[in-house]
Specification:
about 425 residues; alpha/beta; FAD/NAD(P)-binding domain; six-stranded mixed sheet; about 40% helix; about 25% strand
Length: about 425
């Protein structure tokens, strides 16, 4: 842009905060305000997951916040798939994760140091109060009030998933990403669990609606529901309790996932980013990644183009290609889990392989043979060592990319304590 702008981000999640940081780094003269309806330090989420490609982008865009994010990230190493009783299978791979609140705190502190104003506990009912803004960034999430004010212009479509799901935490620290499927008298119910911080993990509970109703979750209170879930997943929680963010006698906030799509991502001087623009099912863990990439792309296009409408159009064109692909994959994953009973009767090793390729389509035969080899403890350890070495070398390169003149010694994100049984 040829001139400094007055920018307002409505929503203080990762998308809004990271866009504000990215735009300010590119042009210090921008006057940027982030408006968040919740109090400082309040979030309605648990952990966020991402991969090395996201950390690479964070380092290239802003090494200062990237170092803090990496510092508080844990690495889950491998995937364990449990299907009832003592059946267990293993998948390779790794990922990074951290607490959502920790991420928001890091981004808010970075934004404040750059001179960005953050207004907490500020509700925007309409856009008349923001009439002096050159650009309004709708970063207020899946239920975006800002988007709803002009929903006909964005031509928003919402697809409702069939399964019920619930975000919880636990004091058991999972060092591998863990899927745990348990059969109950009412049907199958399962848990997605991964690292949150040094003392806790995120647990997403998911089940078909008939299981949810058959177990009585439509009527049970918070304490009763948690006790029942702790009994169902007792073998995986190792005696640790489940944690809810609710502090009342109300029922737990079970949800149906909503796939949000928009035909247009901007209208006049309002642009959608992150979950306001698009959502991807939690089973592929790409919401934070897409929010970060949206933020960087929008800030970059604003700097590259000389008028706002051209910049917003270029942003939408660039991001839509990746988002459309990710949404297709995520929807396939969601639908596969909605029909999981069709294939869960297989042995755990074959079921785990089907789970791993649920949105990837046909795979070469060598991948199945690698999967079979991963079930052998000695070969599984070799695979983990190779992955760890590759990750460590990549971390060294990443630090050099970010700050080659100051590079001394780089360390990879810390591993969780090793599981010697794997």
């Amino acid at each position: 842009m040829t001139e400094n702008m007055r920018i307002v981000c409505v929503g203080g999640g990762p998308a809004g905060l990271y866009f504000a940081i990215s735009a300010k780094l590119r042009r210090r003269g921008h006057d940027i305000t982030v408006i968040e309806r919740n109090p400082a330090g309040a979030t309605f989420g648990w952990g966020v997951g991402y991969w090395d490609d996201v950390l690479d982008s964070l380092y290239r865009n802003d090494p200062v916040s990237a170092r803090e994010i990496e510092r508080y990230s844990g690495v889950w190493d491998g995937v364990e798939v449990h299907v009832g009783a003592d059946q267990k299978a293993y998948l390779g791979g790794y990922g990074l994760s951290m607490g959502r609140q920790r991420l928001l705190d890091i981004l808010a502190q970075r934004a404040t140091k750059l001179g960005i104003e953050i207004r907490f506990q500020n509700e925007i009912e309409d856009l008349t109060s923001l009439a002096d803004a050159d650009l309004i960034v709708a970063s207020d999430g899946i239920n975006s009030r800002t988007r709803q004010l002009a929903q006909n212009h964005y031509r928003t479509d919402v697809e409702i998933g069939r399964n019920k799901y619930l975000w919880l935490g636990t004091y058991r620290v999972f060092d591998a990403f863990t899927y745990a499927f348990e059969r109950t008298p009412a049907g199958w119910i399962w848990m997605h669990a991964y690292y949150l911080d040094a003392e806790r993990s995120t647990c997403i509970i998911e089940c078909p609606p008939q299981t949810w109703k058959g177990l009585g979750f439509d009527e049970l209170g918070v304490d009763q529901s948690l006790q029942l879930l702790e009994q169902i997943f007792e073998r995986h929680l190792h005696g640790q309790p489940l944690i809810s963010q609710l502090r009342s006698d109300d029922r737990l906030p079970w949800l149906n996932f909503r796939v949000v799509r928009n035909d247009a991502w901007f209208h006049d001087n309002v642009v959608l980013v992150g979950d306001s623009a698009h959502t991807t099912h939690f089973s592929i863990g790409s919401g934070t990644k897409l929010a970060i990439y949206d933020a960087i792309a929008l800030a970059t296009k604003l700097e590259e183009h000389t008028d706002l409408q051209s910049a917003l159009k270029a942003y939408e064109i660039e991001r839509r290609a990746e988002v459309d692909l990710m949404q297709r994959n995520a929807t396939q994953s969601m639908q596969w889990l909605e029909n999981v009973e069709d294939c869960i009767g297989q042995d755990s090793v074959h079921f785990a392989y089907e789970l791993s390729k649920r949105f990837r389509g046909r795979q070469p035969s060598w991948r199945y043979h690698l999967h079979l080899a991963t079930q052998i403890p000695a070969l599984r350890r070799v695979r983990r060592h190779v992955t760890s070495a590759r990750r460590w070398r990549h971390a060294r390169l990443r630090k050099r990319w970010a700050n080659p003149s100051a590079y001394v010694v780089a360390t990879a994100p810390r591993r969780l304590r090793p599981n010697l049984e794997r």
